[in-house]
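Re: [ENG-882] Designed sequences occasionally contain unexpected residues at chain ends

Forwarding the minimal case from QA. Structure tokens:
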């Protein structure tokens, strides 16, 4: 499969940010890493091998970016309010730098689907909900959609505005709701095995239901743990069966 690594100095984050690109054609899949992982995490854990048939056939082109969670929510040496500032800079990086890069390397009409597992599921869902005009859908795997699960008790306006479980119940702006409802690809997935929290997925699906938003909730079995073997089964299955 075609694989390219590149990077640029991010004005939003004031640092070099690398990105890995796999494939040549197809809809764009934007990979958000788990926890404090990097842009090659999916490759190291054989996700790219699992997706290879769809990449090589031109069904999907994959873009994998770095996280900065270790510079925000996972950094115990930062003030909580500074973590929120850094998180917002990450959002800006995705919207103002990564999305144009993807469009330039595909086309301006190419759909973009965000995906991630664990903490990456929260980020991918949040990015989609914040800019449904730029990101066309989400495949969220094994997520908890309340950011406050990661803030160690800290709450402010910015944690609220980056926590889908917090802001979605109070979202009434028709611009956001109408654009979110245009998506045919809001997929909320969870296993039921060790360290999974399927009730978190059910709870967030209930929030979307109350807003009249169409979604797919898919809870897999007790043999599906919070780990890479689960995600290597989930993501290729959805790429094949839903796109």
């Amino acid at each position: 499969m075609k694989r390219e690594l590149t990077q640029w100095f991010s004005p939003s984050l004031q640092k070099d940010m690398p990105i890995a690109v796999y494939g040549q054609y197809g809809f764009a899949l934007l990979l958000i890493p788990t926890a404090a992982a990097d842009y090659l995490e999916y490759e190291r854990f054989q996700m790219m091998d699992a997706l290879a048939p769809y990449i090589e056939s031109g069904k999907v082109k994959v873009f994998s970016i770095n996280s900065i969670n270790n510079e925000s929510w996972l950094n115990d040496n930062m003030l909580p309010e500074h973590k929120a500032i850094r998180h917002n800079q990450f959002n800006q990086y995705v919207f103002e730098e990564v999305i144009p890069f993807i469009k330039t390397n595909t086309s301006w009409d190419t759909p973009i689907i965000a995906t991630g597992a664990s903490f990456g599921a929260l980020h991918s869902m949040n990015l989609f909900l914040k800019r449904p005009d730029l990101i066309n859908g989400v495949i969220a795997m094994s997520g908890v959609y309340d950011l406050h699960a990661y803030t160690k008790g800290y709450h402010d306006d910015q944690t609220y505005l980056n926590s889908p479980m917090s802001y979605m119940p109070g979202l009434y702006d028709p611009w956001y709701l109408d654009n979110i409802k245009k998506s045919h690809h809001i997929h909320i997935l969870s296993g039921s095995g060790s360290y999974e929290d399927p009730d978190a997925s059910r709870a967030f699906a209930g929030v979307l239901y109350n807003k009249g938003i169409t979604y797919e909730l898919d809870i897999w079995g007790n043999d599906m743990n919070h780990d890479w073997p689960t995600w290597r089964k989930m993501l290729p299955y959805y790429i094949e069966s839903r796109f």
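QA comment: On inspection the terminal residues look reasonable. The domain at 3-242 is CATH 3.40.50.1820 (Rossmann fold). Proposing we downgrade this to a documentation issue.
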